[in-house]
Amino acid sequence: xxxxxxxxxxxxxxxxxxxGKMTPAEFEASGLRAFAEQDGEGVVTAAEKKKxx
Length: 53
Fold this sequence. Notes:
By secondary structure, the chain is mainly alpha-helical. The chain has one domain. It contains three helices and no strands. It comes from Phenylobacterium haematophilum.
């Protein structure tokens, strides 16, 4: 049940235009944001991800 709630929340974040559909561009933008928010080394470490939670 918890995983379903998490999936619903995650989909809501990825669906940036809130049209109920996730496009490849919306999916890609999410990954790009994750890397941009880190230290600029081109990788995301577990420690960095934990800080961002």
